[in-house]
Amino acid sequence: MVNHDPFTTSVSAYVFTGLALVIALTRLLLRWRGRDTFKPDDWLMLAAWFIYAVATACVQIILRNGSNVGIKNPDDLMPEEIGRRALGAKFALLGRPFYMTYIWLLKACILLYYQRLTDRVREVRAVRICAAFVVLTWIGCMLSFFLPCQPIQKYWQVVPDPGLHCTAAPESVITMGSTNIFTDLFLMLIPLPLILRVRLPWKTKLQLMLVFCMGIFVIMVSVMRMIIVLNALTQVNKLIWGQLECFTATIVANAPTFREFWICSRHRARLRRAFDTGSGGSSIDQSKHRRPSDPYDCSAYDQTQNASREQITIPPKGYIIERTVALRQESDGGISAAPMGLATQIMRDEARRGNDSMV
Question: What CA–CA distance (Å, rounded) separates 207 from 101?
Fold first, then answer.
């Protein structure tokens, strides 16, 4: 199967970790530029990166010193090399929980995002059940890292060979891969009923489905990682595919939030053009509407008599709202709706009192 040299793995780990940091910082920057309050999942995303950085640091130590995985003739090793490989094996054991915790923290970020979508009892219950499932699977993966090989010192034992269960740990690969796939499927299913019920064009619905179902790429990487690693149980294979999985999960976890930023900036550009040029000889009163210089700020426009709110709702059993502010000129030319605050922000709409009567 596929094998990677240590140098390529080392460089890839640095690149993936650096890009993940860029994504986390860009998310915070765009939130700040958009005059929006920072959300818990924004900070959790940044905190999760430090977990990722520790896992990457462990990768570099493992690649530099080696480990006790895949040694053909351990009895021929010199004492100095045995010590180095034992050190690498210790950091391999240390890196596993950090690597897995980063993946699971990204799932928590997605759940926090889902929590802001609706007040509906059914959807809130689904988010809570998924959150409990994520916690339980995290505990299960942790146990699979440390319990199969006892005593624990065998995890970094080089001579004599402690056995496959203590070096390559195929049980942990299978446990983490399968639970990762099931939790990702659960996460993808939660927003689908909301998207299907919302009164939006099918083109927009399909776009939203694609964004929220990007977890399929993480599932594909997880499946490929299990197949390749289990057929070629080398430390380098495990490390490079683990790094690829972390980076793919980072992109997927940030996709819905970055879509909001993109829609916001697009509509913001329309509004700036509307303020710069009038239609049919008429222009917007600049004294009543100040044009902000920030291209990401979608909330700086005053809502005056020329502004109106539009709500896109769905039938009973729960609403998804896309709040927009439509600036309308008095002349023939009209301006398309632009978002209020963060554009296309899927928001809560049902009053709890009304929910009680419909659920």
Answer: 30
How far apart, in whole angstroms, are the C-alpha atoms of residue 110 and residue 256? Answer: 9
Q: How far apart are CA 181 and CA 223, in angstroms?
A: 8
CA 237 to mean position of chain CA atoms: 23
Question: Reduced to 3 DSSP states, what percent helix, strand and coil does the chain have, rounded to the nearest 5?
Answer: 65, 5, 30
Q: Is 308 helix (H, G, I), strand (E, B) or coil?
A: strand
Q: How far is CA 133 from CA 70, 108, 138, 174, in A?
A: 34, 11, 8, 17
What's residue 67's pLDDT?
87
Predicted TM-score of the model (pTM): 0.75
Residue 37: φ, ψ to 5°: -75, 145
Contact assessment for residue 65 and residue 152, using Cβ atoms and an 8 Å cutoff = no
- pLDDT, position 320: 32
Q: Say which DSSP state 206 is in.
A: H
Residue 319 pLDDT > 60, yes or no? no
Q: Mind spelling out the 3-state secondary structure of the chain? A: CCCCCHHHHHHHHHHHHHHHHHHHHHHHHHHHHCCCCCCHHHHHHHHHHHHHHHHHHHHHHHHHHCCCCCCCCHHHCCHHHHHHHHHHHHHHHHHHHHHHHHHHHHHHHHHHHHHCCCCCHHHHHHHHHHHHHHHHHHHHHHHHHHCCCCCHHHHHCCCCCCCHHHHCCHHHHHHHHHHHHHHHHHHHHCCHHHHHHCCCCHHHHHHHHHHHCCHHHHHHHHHHHHHHHHHCCCHHHHHHHHHHHHHHHHHHHHHHHHHHHHHHHHHHHHHHHHHHCCECCECCCCCCCCCCCCCCCCCCCCCCCCEEEECCCCCCCCCCEECEEEECCCCCCCCCCEECCCCCCEECCCCHHHHHHHC
Whether the Cβ atoms of residue 2 and residue 244 lie closer than 8 Å to each other: no
In whole angstroms, what is the distance from residue 288 CA to residue 324 CA? 19
CA distance 291 to 273: 10
Q: Is the pLDDT of residue 313 over 80?
A: no
Tokens representing residue 91 in the block: 């950091």
CA distance 50 to 141: 20
Confidence category of residue 276, pLDDT binned at 50, 70, 90: low
